[in-house]
Amino acid sequence: MPTPPPKDNTPAPSEVGNPTQNWSSKYRGAVVEDLDPGPALSTHPRTPLGQALFSAFERDYTHLTVVDPGSKALLGYISTPAIKAQLASGAIAESDSVEAAMVKFRRKGRRYALITMETPLEELEAFFEGRATDGGEKQDFAVVTDPARRFVLGVATREDLGEFVRRRPA
């Protein structure tokens, strides 16, 4: 009996360059809530950097959201690796306020990606890769809010997404 010809494993033309094909098999309908994102740790603009860093290190967080103490509006965030580098260079001191080192969210003239607990993981990956934001900048973390953007519900990171894929059965 003759041996059948080897099977052609070349992807179909419709699959070439179609990242959503890969996403749908990777995430299978999962949403941000399935990541079980950790609660956001927030600080205020006038909090001393040393105190904010201590809180972050205590919980092994790399990013803290900065909120207005009165309205609880999201103002920006601080990145502990960036602050460590600024402290080492002498650009800032631990006694300085968080406001001196925070990255402020620019609200005017910029559209932000809304990440909620119901956001599909495909969209979260696109956000991390810069395909869902103005300017196309890659992001390390996402602030998860309610649909009205009133409350910060948690923070999702690239690592959370990678861990979800690793632990999910094939």
Automatic annotation (TrEMBL):
Residues that span the membrane, as ranges: none
Chain residue ranges for the region called Disordered: 1-28
Gene3D superfamilies: CBS-domain
Highest taxon listed in the record's lineage: Eukaryota
PANTHER family according to UniProt: BETA-SYNTHASE (BETA-THIONASE), PUTATIVE (AFU_ORTHOLOGUE AFUA_3G08420)-RELATED
Name of the protein described by the UniProt record: Cystathionine beta-synthase
Gene source species: Cladosporium halotolerans
